[in-house]
UniProtKB/TrEMBL annotation:
Taxonomic lineage: Bacteria, Pseudomonadati, Pseudomonadota, Gammaproteobacteria, Alteromonadales
Alphabetically ordered keywords of this record: ATP-binding, Magnesium, Metal-binding, Nucleotide-binding
InterPro entries: FTHF_cligase, FTHF_cligase-like_sf, NagB/RpiA_transferase-like
Binding site for substrate: L54, E59
Name of the protein this chain belongs to: 5-formyltetrahydrofolate cyclo-ligase
Region described as Disordered: spans on this chain: 1-23
Cofactor(s) the record lists: Mg(2+)
Organism: Pseudoalteromonas porphyrae
Amino acid sequence: MSQQRATIRQETRRKRNSLSNNEQKIAASALKVNFTQHLKLQKTTQNAHVGIYLSNDSELDTSLLIKDLWSKNHTTYLPIIHPFNGTTLYFQRYEENSPMRPNRYGILEPKLNCSQICPLAELDYLLMPLVAFDDHGNRLGMGGGFYDKTLARYEKENWQKPQLIGLAHQCQHVENLPIESWDVPLKFIITPQKIYHW
């Protein structure tokens, strides 16, 4: 199974990395429109707490969406790798002037400020990156397991929040993913072309 997952990961990353700058810009704009539509369908008009990420490795660009959320008085939070266990994530408030630093993967994250951390259950939405997704809401990440480990209690305790949403380019869709016991399925996946719901 691990070889299957590695092969899918390699192939979908290749497709994603082949997108042109113009295709990425169009996709980022469409993502903003589709997530705004999703918020309307959820009757969320203002002051939502949204966990999101800064794009890396040709992931669907979230920069326009983040600015749009700020303009509509929603609060955004970025993941920070836990400073002690190094395997789970905190979510810290992110604003235009937030002090940032690169983590061990070279991805920018806010400098740790415990007063700005939002407990997972207090987020309304958690927008997650992924490498591939399938017809059943299963998500394949980069392989580090950060989100799965962070969300391990989510399924067991049946939390009502946050709503888990994957963000991806349409080319990252596959029919079926080989799933491990620790994988947490998603209720929604938003691409520039479509909003999937299970």
